[in-house]
Amino acid sequence: MSEEPNRWEGVYRSKEEAETSWYEEHPQVSHDLIAATGAGTEVAIVDVGAGASRLVDCLLDHGFRRITVLDLSETAIATARARQTQNAPVEWVVGNVLQWKPAGRFDVWHDRAAFHFLTGTADQDAYLQVMDRALLSGGHAIIGTFALDGPTSCSGLPVARYDATLLSGRLGDGYRLIRSLNHEHSTPWGSVQRFHFGLFRKA
């Protein structure tokens, strides 16, 4: 994991926001799954591996006021932050989720396409331990990864692909699958990437 901050910093320094394959003008699937948790706007939400994602914009537009955005890339965080007003109720965190020690706990943990870069068991376990410590009992985890028929790599890195069964098994008995959906993401240049999203409730 030590080389990844430099890798992702390089990506965000060399490309415009809309030149990345994962760019979404409006993150509809993520928004819909957050809405499906039934969470009110007072809940605490963290977007893990957010990059310069516009999910934070969407959440602010819908009245959420306790948002944390976490990414390895300082440039990505700066890009997302620059779109907001100075008093936006967002905590911006530059760091590696595997070593993250959040000050508070969360009702919703959202991750679109960060977990699937963890291909080793040790890193996956470290991620899930951080998530479990950070997420309140009864809280929800939303994890989006490449689907079983999705790409085998992204930005030159291999990925682990999942369906509902594999992702449920990886999270373990402490999490109950609430919703599973497959999604075809169209990149800015028109190719299609197949994703799987799982919405889980923590026991």
UniProtKB/TrEMBL annotation:
Keywords: Methyltransferase, Transferase
Residues annotated as domain Methyltransferase: 45-139
Classification via Pfam families: Methyltransf_25 (PF13649)
GO molecular function: methyltransferase activity
Superkingdom, taxonomy of origin: Bacteria
SUPFAM superfamilies with a match to the protein in the record: S-adenosyl-L-methionine-dependent methyltransferases (SSF53335)
CDD domains (UniProt xref): AdoMet_MTases
GO biological process annotation, one example: methylation
InterPro entries per the UniProt record, alphabetical: Methyltransf_25, SAM-dependent_MTases_sf
Protein name, UniProt field: Methyltransferase domain-containing protein
Organism: Roseicitreum antarcticum
